[in-house]
Amino acid sequence: MTAPDGYPFAALTEADAGFFPSARSVGVPPAIPYRVSCAPAFAAAAVRLAAKRGTDLSALAAAALLLAPDRRLDPGAPDDGAERVVLELRLPSGHSDAAIRRALAAALALAEPGCRLMPAEEAGRLEGAVETLTYRNKALAHALERVSFRPLDGKLTQVRDAAQMFGFVNEWCFDEDRVVKRFRELAPVYHPDTGVVACRDRMAQLIDARNLLINHVRTAYRSGPWTRRP
């Protein structure tokens, strides 16, 4: 099928589509016809989306025109000589071809999982916030690297070394709950996959230190003559 000016077009009507409901059946009032020129891939994607939504392209465009911001970029009509198709729609008067293409592009964007429309100002603000957080994260990682403990050579065997890794003053100023709580605070910092200061050696020695301190607490605090006192 071709348009009068010689370009092929996709006229999405009940006769052509076969099973799409009409624009009137989904609440779109009768309106003037539009013939919107666009790239074939864009037209095909819009037709597929209308089919997926169980409606016709006119109803899809009419709904999207209510949501699409004017500042959204126009996908554009193909340049002279480029392949193009013409989408035949029925919409209320007063819309430009560019506005209709923007609306269909917005509908396609919203159909993607996790996508949403936002004003350009909000997008710029979020990009700035991400850059600030990235900078602060790098500064934090650098600071933590400077103050972090250095992995010991060989296997960790001394309780005082393990206590120092956990920031305890000595090996008698903590109990099992404090050891577990402190480990949960330090583990996300040194985790080799997700830590701010990712380090496999530090994480391994942190686990060894936790086990050593818990064993020390269970052994020292649950044995000896003081356990028999009231």
Write structural notes for this entry:
Helix content is about 50%, strand content about 5%. The chain contains eight helices and three strands. Helix 2 (about 40-55) crosses helix 4. The longest helix is centred in the middle third of the chain and has 28 residues, at about 120-145. Mean pLDDT is about 80; it is low at about 1-25.
Protein topology:
Elements (H helix, E strand, L loop, with lengths): L8 E3 L2 H4 L14 E7 L1 H14 L3 H9 L19 E7 L5 H15 L8 H28 L11 H7 L10 H15 L9 H22 L9
Parallel strand pairs: 1-3
Antiparallel strand pairs: 2-3
Characterize this entry briefly.
This protein has 230 residues and is mainly alpha-helical. The chain has helices at 14-17, 40-53, 57-65, 97-111, 120-147, 159-165, 176-190, 200-221, and strands at residues 9-11, 32-38, 85-91. A three-stranded mixed β-sheet has the order 1-3-2.
Main attributes?
single chain; 230 residues; mainly alpha; 8 helices; 3 strands; rod-shaped; disordered N terminus
User: Fraction of residues in helices?
Assistant: 40-55%
Structural classification:
mainly alpha
Beta-strand level of the residues, as a percent range? 5-15%
The rounded Rg comes to 33 Å
How many strand elements? 3
Average of the residue pLDDT scores: 78
Report the sheet with the most strands, covering strand number, pairing sense and barrel closure: 3 strands, mixed
Number of helices: 8
Query: Strand order across the biggest sheet?
Result: 1-3-2
* Molecular shape: rod-shaped
Order of helices and strands: EHEHHEHHHHH
Protein name: J domain-containing protein
